[in-house]
Every structure is written in structure tokens, then in C-alpha cells.
Amino acid sequence: MSSPADALLPLLKSTFGFDHFRGRQAEVVDRVMAGERTLAVMPTGAGKSLTYQLPAVALDGCVVVVSPLIALMHDQLRGARAAGIRAASLTSVDADFADTRQAYRDGQLDLLYIAPERATGEGFRSLMDARAPALFAIDEAHCVSEWGHDFRPDYRLLRPLLDAFPDVPRLALTATADKHTREDILVQLGIPAEGLVLAGFDRPNIRYRVMPRVSPAKQLTEFIAANPGPGIVYCPTRDGTERMAERLAAATGRGVAAYHAGLDPERRARVQHDFVASEDGIVTATVAFGMGIDKPDVRFVAHAGLPKSIESYYQETGRAGRDGDPAEALMLWAADDFARARSRLSELPEARVAGERARLNALAALVETVECRRALLLRHFGENPPARCGNCDTCLDPPKQVDATVLAQKLMSAVYRTGQSFGAGHVEAVLTGRSDERVVSRGHDKLSVFGIVEGEDARLIKPLVRTLVAREALQATEHGGLMFGPACRAVMKGDAPVLIAEPPVKRTQRASRSDRAAANPVGDPLFDALRGVRRELAAEAGVPPYVIFHDAVLRAMASERPATRSDLAAIPGVGAKKLEAWGDAFLNVIRRF
Ligand code: ADP
Ligand code: ZN
After folding, report:
1. Helix (H, G, I), strand (E, B) or coil at 127
2. Domain boundary residue among 436, 471, 501?
3. CATH number of the domain enclosing 581
4. Which residue out of 6, 49, 549 has the highest number of ligand 1 atoms within 8 Å of its CB and is therefore the one to mutate?
5. Is residue 351 part of a domain?
6. Which pLDDT value is given to residue 148?
7. How many helices (H) and strands (E) are present in the chain, helices listed first?
């Protein structure tokens, strides 16, 4: 049976160079082409924009896209134009306002981007009255809901415009909407419940790793050395971003720039622009970085400290690998991160404490688990994933689990008997029977807990402290010592088994290259030459390199070595417009090899 989307396959190939729809794109396109109202919830990188850009080419008339961020709009605009789509935007920074309006009236546009505050104005309404659009696409649709994490009142005012054109289909799109938010979007935008197309949250090309933070600059340097592409390192503080940028630049020899809200806007814009244009740039940033960045070839996202919540972790790591190529997410955490976050709970209004505590507990479960990280993340979002993913640290290199329930009781009791004021190092000295000066001078060598931990178990004390702090069985005192936390009883009584990952004997030398996610061929001269010509063409056209072709396309060129235009057109990602504009430049390079 042929669906409307199937009928568009030739157009999909000629415009975007793709042979198939991906995931649930076809369903969404089917609904759009049938004139129905739809809410598409798909993870970042799933290819949401194609579900209105392809109809924009196929349908008579213009698709109007409401989008909240000018930076995002302009990025999309460049991509659409490179594919030969007649696209324009109406924003405060566009000088060609009158021309764009005229082109719309004359039916000369396929795609028109507009910000919500302008879309709800009278000027825009009269433009729509002059010529009805073919589709209203509402991007980042969670902004319409107060339940969403990014409510924007302007989105609420879109409804009268939509309702004024009851026969024009609507397509709402978002990557982040829980059940509550989804239902609200449907109601707010007048979309029937059966119009929901919900794709899974999984980002299979992202490899998750979570490790204790021992020496962050060194750990990150190793990580970066194995990841030659562009990446983001999230740091908890503004100062931290600057210090980390310096250290990583010195240690890796790569371009590293800091980004945070304290920099002047010009500097921020430059850092962002350079990053988007680069093929190997690194940005050390606070969470302020990333919002408006639609860079598909980010190869890694690292967290130098604990993220705020699983939701923000997922959103931040989700900026990696939007192009579908292998990408890595590394989180470094320490017991201190939890201690600090927990101590801040007391400053919160009563009503928020329980929610924030639940967020921290969910993060504690993520860092502690010896099971699949991805499975844990997906379950958090209400999915029912397979037990093992094969592409996270615990799946690739399963840690042995040890039962530390009894050891935890010994540790708790040492904390108690030393007066709940000493740090992990001192408690460890007491437990392992090290009679150093501090221990002896305080008489702690006389305690019943002195020297009760022997041999192999001693190695478990540090990781166990991390786990107990993460779980809130222990917490930090004002002076950095350890004291009992709210969850101490269950551990003391042995009611809650404490299973921890056995610390690696020596595993700082991470997996070898061959075991790593296969990314770009390192040292392939043809691939490098193709990148070189891409850089030149990008500079000429004033666009980032990925707008010309993604890495995956260059890789396919390097391995298949197309000799003619029609060979080249067969490579996924090479559409007619790009073939025409740039095909010969790449073919010439291939011929030289
Ligand atoms: P989203 O907006 O959902 O985050 P994008 O629309 O930016 O995702 O698309 C992500 C990437 O997927 C883009 O690089 C795009 O070219 C690619 N893509 C989209 N649809 C397909 C497809 N059917 N086949 C191959 N690649 C696709
Ligand atoms: Zn896994």
C-alpha cells in the first residue's frame, strides 16, 4: 500500500539525498500531507525539521514555521537553502523584510520562519489573510505549556491565528515533553489525541560513560585525545570554565574557548560562531551554552561535575551526535558534588525540597549503577528498554559488583565513633589500622573500629563513601567531615543492601581505539582532502562545513570513490542542489587519489 509519504520518496532523494525516512518521520509526513493535525515528539537528532521541510517542497503554498530562537532559525534557513528550498525568515535582524513579505504574497516561498511574538501580531495576520499558508509548523512546541520547562506566553497567543485557518494543517514539534506537557500541548494547540506521534527517547549513537572524578583535567585530556571532533565540556562554575579552557588548551594543543553568561555578548557570539564553524573546536561552558546551537557534528559532551538532574543531563548530552554518527558522553562526578547539592536543599522553599531531593536520588542511582546506564535513563523517561544496550561503559566493560553491606556498617560505625566530624581519609586510616599521628593523638587507635578492615576491602572504602554520600546515608559537615545523613538507619541496620561496583585495578588507560565508537577514519588522506575542499567551499559560501555535507557523506565518498555525478548522487545525503553546486569539486578531489 502506498502512503502519501511513500509518494514523496523521489523528492526526499532529490532534495535531501536520503533514500528512506528515518524512525517515525513517514508517519508524521503522512499526516501532514493528509491535512491532519499532529504533535510529533521526537528526540533531538531524529530529524524533525524534515517532516515540514519535505512537505514545504511538495505542497503548493508556503509552510510557516514558528520558532523561538533567531539563531536556530538562521541555522535551519542555511540548511534549507543549501538543499535548494526557497526559504526566508521574518525576524528583527532580517533587513529584507519587505522583499520577504512580497515573495510570500507572490507565492515565491516554500518555507517561512517566524518568531512567535511576530506571528501573533496584526501585520503577520494580514499577510496570512492575503494568502493562506500550506501548513503551520510550531517548533519547540513545549513552550506553549506551563508544564514544559520553557514556557513562553507568546506561544499561547498563537491559537487565534491557527483557528482562523481551520483547514490549514498544524504540526507541533518538540524533543522534550513529558506526559503532562504532551497532553497540555494537544489542548493548547487544538490537536486531537490521536494526532500524537511519539518516538522513543533513545539516542543509540551516543555512548554514555560515568566515572568518579579523580583528576579532571587529566581525565578530560585523555578523553579528548581519543575524540578528535568538536566537543563541549560543561563545568559547574564560570571560573571553572576559564581554568579548564586554559588547562585543556595547554594539554591537548587544540582550540579551547570558555563560554559563560559573564562574558560580553560579542565574545559569546564569537565563541559560539567559531564553534559551529569548526571541525575540532572545544568549548568549556556553563549550562548557558547550547540552547540555540544546532550543530549536528558535536562528537562529545563531557560533564566535569554533576549535572542538575537527569533531565538536564539528557538534554545536554543530547547535543552530541545529532548527525547520527557515533558520539560520546562522559560524566565525571565526586561525592562532593552530591554533598554540596544536598546542603543547598536546606536553602530551598519547603515545597521544593522533596522534588529536588528526588532529582538528586535519581542522579545518585545513575552514577552508582552497575547496570546499563542507557536502560536506567530510558526507564526514567517512562520507557521499557532492553536490559543491556551494548554502548555504555557498564555494558562494554561490566564492573564486578561487590556486596559492601557489612563494610558499610563498619564505615558508618567508624564515622559515629570518631565523632561525625572527620573526612574520608581519616576514617579510612582508622578502619585500616594506620596509626598515623592524627589517629594516635586523638586516641582513635584505641577505638573498637580501629583496624577492622583488612586486605582487599580497604580498596572499597573510598568508592563506598561516594556511594553512601550519593545515597544520603552520609553527608558532609560544614568543615568537610562526614556525618550521618537522613538515610543512615537503613544502612546501619543492614536493611538496604549496599552493592557497589568494584573499583578497577588500573583502568585509567581507556579502551583502545579499535574498541571505541567508530568515528572518522584517522589519517585517511582522501578523507582529509575531502574535508579540505569542504572547508574551502564552506568559507566561500559563508556557512559552517556541515551545511555543505556531513562527515558521514564524506566518509562514504572516501570509501566508495564515486567517479561520476550519478555515482555521487547515489550517496545518501547528496541531493540534486548540492550535487549541482559542489559535486564537481569533490569529484575532482577523488580523481586525484
Ligand atoms: P531534530 O530537529 O529532530 O533535532 P534535525 O532535523 O536537525 O533533527 O535532523 C538531524 C539530522 O538527521 C540532520 O543532520 C538531518 O540531515 C538528518 N536526517 C534527517 N532525516 C533523515 C533521513 N531520513 N535519513 C538520513 N538522515 C536524516
Ligand atoms: Zn548499556
Report:
1. helix
2. 501
3. 1.10.150.80
4. 49
5. no
6. 65
7. 29, 17
Answer for the pair 301, 320: CB distance below 8 angstroms, yes or no: yes
Same domain, 155 and 227: no
Instruction: Give me the pLDDT at residue 268, please.
Output: 94
Does residue 338 lie in a domain region?
Answer: no
DSSP 362: H
Side-chain-side CA neighbours of 310 within 13 Å: the count stands at 23
Which parts of the chain register pLDDT below 50?
507-515
The answer to whether 171 and 32 are in contact (CB under 8 A) is: yes
Residue that terminates a domain, selected from 146, 181, 198: 198
Which one, of 110, 532, 519, lies nearest residue 327 by Cα?
Answer: 519
Query: What residue owns the CA closest to ligand 1's atom 20?
Result: 47
Number of structural domains (the chain) is: 4
Residues 155 and 239 in one domain: no
* Adjacency order of strands within the sheet including 63-66: 87-90, 111-114, 63-66, 135-138, 170-174, 38-41, 196-198
Residue 586, domain member (yes or no): yes
- Beta pairing partners, 170: 136
At 396-406, the pLDDT tens digits run: 999 888 999 99
Ligand having the closest approach to the CA of 297 = 1
Ligand nearest the Cα of residue 376 is 2
Residues of the chain with pLDDT > 70: what percent? 97
